[in-house]
Amino acid sequence: MLIRIYRFLKRAKLRTKLFISFLAVALLPMIGMGAFSAVIARDSLRDQLESRVADYVDRAGTQLDAAYGRCQEAMDRVVYGDELLTLVVALQNSRIRVGELRLFEEAQRQAMQPVSASIRRVDFLLGGDPGLQYNNKALEKRVEEAVAAHPDNAAMLEREGAFWFASEDSLYAVRTVPDLYSRREAARMVVTMNKREFFSLVKNVMTTGIMPISYLDGAADGIVSYNGAQYLYGSVSLQAHNWTLYALVSYQFVIQRTGDIVRVAVVAIAAGIGLIALIA
Fold this sequence. Notes:
280 residues, 59% helix
């Protein structure tokens, strides 16, 4: 191959040799600089977006931790209050009807609305025979499945007496109600929240370009493909159940701007080839 090129150059006219020489001397550095500029621009744009996402998740994490803390404090006030345990013990001893505890549930739901507008229900799950009659069976099954499916949930329930879990549409905060004398679990308090509304409290932390925040198990920092598009994302660990929250921002902006630089470089190279052809 090299021999053929050498023979071609040896037989070529002076004008052709000058044209090829100009191309080698002028355009090769231009091509190198264009490629280098595109890479530098891409990395710079990506760094800017990553900085935005990192700032967003830090602020969002602070807000969500605060919301989580407010919910936990409100639940603790109910759990350690005299009225709840008195109602539970009375119901277990058949001294009151289930309706009185139902009224107490509704009163707590209304009382907790200022804490978070996402709260939809407050339920108490009783143990033993009273639970067979009283408990919301669907909710009770959902809580037991969450405990059985994730060892972290069981560990947190044992260690802290509380854990949070999520379904497709809802968040559930579970808190044990301890017997003040035996310290054993007398019941469980379950607060059901609208998941979208709970997480929407961070929507105004940063303006355009950021998708709603959510949690993605097993994700890692970098670029992720989602619905056929690429996204940069950052993460922050929350106090709530050791969750990690992720914010996604479209990588398309970086691709488009880098493509613009490449197109400008191609036009400049084409113009250079034309100019060299005229000179030669």
